[in-house]
Design a protein that fits this description.
By secondary structure, this protein is mainly β. 0% of the residues lie in helices and 46% in strands. The protein is built from no helices and 33 strands. The strands form eight sheets. The chain has a six-stranded antiparallel sheet, with no helix packed on it. It is globular and about 50 Å long.
Length: 419
């Protein structure tokens, strides 16, 4: 098996940002002191992005039950007020943003799981959005990624179709419109997608996960926004997500897998040929679910954070930190207790001090949900956790940068709509 290289986390992952970022004028205080913000009827996704150019990010909330997207304007003091609401397609499930018409103002894209489409809503620049335009996708789109796939400077769309067994590619024209979709077969029930030049030929490739088939699908890119048929790579049968990247700075790809029903993560470093990869196992805690790679101690080497869910309902979870070595090895740094069933996490500078922090999603069907936020000290250690209620929704989050360049944003979504 030829190992893969990709410079970003590829997990259907990730933890939750502190609800202190979402505290609102109309928030309700719980008995435990956590502020729960009512973000709509059936919220399925949130993006945080500056839509009016005042350098204070707004909340963009997708409401699955009422087929809409709401804009909550940032008042500059940590509160939000409803600015506008736009209709979407049926059962919207995920949201992302980019400058689709290249006017310098962020635009919004929403996947509609109930109508097999995406809705494009162009930003006006004052915190409101124009009326939507819909484009067909495959069956039950659950994830959307914005990237320039054909290197023409225009943002394109990658949509994962959970029940279509495919990804849909919609190439942007740079004027806010998109070409009709082109579908590419993946393994069954695809879960997430990322892009990178995996085979080092100068073209962006697609990497798609499927934890049900226990495989990764690599779709090599042609450089013009089209892709060749998938090549399948087996993963652990207990793996439902992974991190891949150049873990030892040798220019070769590596793979990290969590053994979700065990106690280990496996690190496989690239070698000179198939069958000669180097594999090492590390104890990470009970029931590892998700992994993020980031430089937690500022030495220029990728470190790992592992979210451990435990093996039984209601069991306390944890986060285990490994510091990376230049030879690709890992040094155990410490473990931090989190809430119940910690199964996903994300990294970002949550408090603006220049140090990477962790946000961990803790949830179970019987015990409700919470978010554990651990602020980083900049040396690979973290402070005591602070927990926030999530209002009963199971939500996931990822971090990125906004179109103005520099400020962190958060994308939150709950589990995809089932059909």
């Amino acid at each position: 098996m030829r190992a893969l290289w990709i410079s970003q986390l590829l997990l259907a992952l990730a933890g939750i940002a502190s609800s202190a970022h979402f505290s609102a004028d109309s928030g309700a205080q719980t008995d435990g002191g956590a502020l729960v913000y009512d973000i709509g009827d059936g919220p399925s996704s949130i993006a945080v992005v500056d839509l009016n150019g005042d350098h204070r990010p707004e909340l963009v909330v997708v409401n699955r039950h009422i087929n809409s997207v709401s804009i909550l304007l940032n008042n500059g003091s940590g509160g939000f007020a409803l600015k506008s609401r736009n209709t979407t397609g049926l059962a919207p499930s995920a949201v992302a943003f980019g400058d689709f018409n290249r006017d310098g103002k962020p635009d919004i894209v929403v996947t509609n799981s109930g109508s097999d489409s995406v809705s494009i809503l162009l930003g006006i620049g004052d915190g409101t959005l124009a009326k939507r335009t819909d484009y067909p996708t495959g069956a039950v789109p659950c994830t959307v990624l914005v990237a320039d796939l054909n290197r023409d400077g225009n943002p394109d769309l990658l949509v994962v179709n959970r029940y279509g067994g495919s990804v849909s590619v919609l190439l942007g024209k740079g004027n806010g419109t998109f070409a009709p979709k082109r579908d590419y077969a993946t393994s069954s029930l695809p879960y997430s997608v990322a892009v990178s030049d995996v085979d080092s030929d100068g073209n962006l490739d697609l990497v798609v996960t499927s934890c049900f088939d226990h495989v990764v699908s690599l779709l090599p890119g042609n450089g013009d926004g089209t892709f060749r048929p998938k090549v399948r790579y087996a993963t652990s049968k207990t793996n439902c997500g992974f991190v891949i990247g150049d873990l030892n700075s040798d220019g070769r790809p590596g793979l990290v897998e969590p053994h979700r029903y065990g106690y280990l993560i496996s690190v496989q470093l690239g070698a000179d040929g198939p069958g000669r990869e180097v594999r090492s196992d590390y104890l990470s805690g009970k029931g590892p679910r998700s992994i993020v790679a980031a430089d937690f101690n500022g030495d220029g080497i990728a470190d790992l954070a592992v979210a451990n869910a435990g093996h039984s309902q209601g069991e306390a979870g944890s986060v285990f930190i490994f510091l990376g070595k230049r030879n690709g090895g890992l040094e155990p740094k410490g473990s931090y207790v989190t809430g119940s069933a910690s199964h996903s996490l994300a990294v970002g500078d949550l408090n603006g001090d220049g140090k990477l922090d962790l946000a961990v999603l803790n949830s179970s069907h019987d015990f409700g949900g919470s978010v554990s936020v651990l602020l980083g000290n900049g040396d690979g250690t973290f402070g005591a956790r602070t927990d926030y209620a999530t209002g009963g929704y199971l939500i996931w989050v990822s971090f990125g940068e906004d179109t103005k360049g520099g400020s962190a944003h958060v994308v939150i979504r709950d589990k995809p709509v089932e059909k």
